[in-house]
Specification:
Blueprint: E1 2-7, E2 13-18, E3 21-25, H1 29-32, E4 36-42, E5 47-48, E6 58-62, H2 66-72, E7 81-85, E8 90-91, E9 97-99, E10 106-107, E11 110-116, E12 132-139, E13 142-143, H3 144-150, H4 154-158, E14 163-170, E15 179-184, E16 187-193, H5 201-211, E17 219-221, E18 230-231, E19 236-241, E20 245-253
Parallel strand pairs: 6-17, 8-14, 9-20
Antiparallel strand pairs: 1-2, 1-5, 1-14, 2-3, 3-4, 6-7, 10-13, 10-18, 11-12, 11-17, 12-14, 15-16, 15-19, 19-20
Length: 262
């Protein structure tokens, strides 16, 4: 079942995707179930929003594909590398990624996103499904040179708009074998499959929930495959994940960013 968060000009609503229509729900299905209002809205008439706004945090997993680890020359601990983005970084489909005035490349990282649906604390890996509401697509946007200059990743990965997600939440999906592809202006940049993740969803949920209590609506970005990641003002990043559709976002310079002529 695909769940959309959308607007037709007023407050956000939720709906079940049914071909080219949305079956409007009475409330947020994560908290109020799937009661419908009897109304239908054409997808073409709706603005699709970020499918969830995390209540407390965006959790990210770094270096979760072996080829990406080699490219980044990362030599870290033998456990999942976890970090946080603020929920203010979240935007939805077709919203612009705003490029701040920092030196160096801004990069895309197309990733499978797990949407948490229950309070999760010290969850054992065999019970991981109990706390998952569904899955969506995410882009872990990063100011790559800032990561290395700062010596930590909070600023480089936490700028406003640096966590696009969407377009929908799929509640019924096997996350273990999904193709992930990323394109910039139609040019292939990254490709991989979730079967190649070093740590799968069960292990990630167990590890993260041992450190931080996860709340309904929190999301986990599970890591990106290897590939060329840079993009610039005016370009469009498209991330497709099997069974989830395509997340598309244009890039736009912030009003105080001036790029050098090519």
């Amino acid at each position: 079942m695909k769940i959309a968060r959308f607007s037709t000009g007023e407050d956000p609503q939720f709906g079940i995707v049914d071909d080219d229509e949305l079956v409007v729900l009475a409330g947020d299905p994560m908290f109020h179930g799937y009661e419908t209002t009897g109304e239908r809205v054409r997808l073409a008439d709706a603005r699709i929003l970020a499918p969830v706004i995390p209540r407390s945090k965006v959790v990210c997993i770094g270096m979760n594909f072996a080829a990406h680890v080699q490219t980044m020359q990362y030599d870290g601990p033998q456990n999942p590398l976890i970090f946080l983005k603020p929920n203010t970084a979240v935007i939805g489909p077709d919203e612009p990624i705003i490029l701040p005035p920092v030196d160096g490349r801004i990069t895309h990282e197309g990733e499978l996103v797990v949407v948490i649906g229950a309070v999760a604390k010290r969850v054992k890996r065999e019970n991981w499904r109990d706390v998952v509401f569904g899955y969506t697509i995410g882009n872990d946007v990063s100011a790559r040179d800032v990561m290395f200059a700062d010596g930590q990743w909070a600023r480089a990965k936490g700028f406003d708009t640096f966590a696009p997600i969407g377009p929908f939440i799929e509640t019924e999906l096997d996350p273990s074998n999904l193709e992930i592809t990323t394109f910039v202006d139609g040019e292939p940049r990254r490709a991989g499959n979730t079967r190649d993740m070093i740590y799968g969803v069960p292990e990630i949920i167990e590890f993260v929930s041992d450190a931080w209590t996860l709340l309904p609506g929190d999301i986990i970005m599970t890591g990106t495959p290897d590939g060329l990641g840079g993009f610039t003002d005016g370009q469009t990043v498209e991330i497709t994940i099997e069974g989830l559709g395509t997340l598309r976002n244009p890039a736009k310079n912030r009003d105080d960013r001036v790029d050098e002529p090519a």
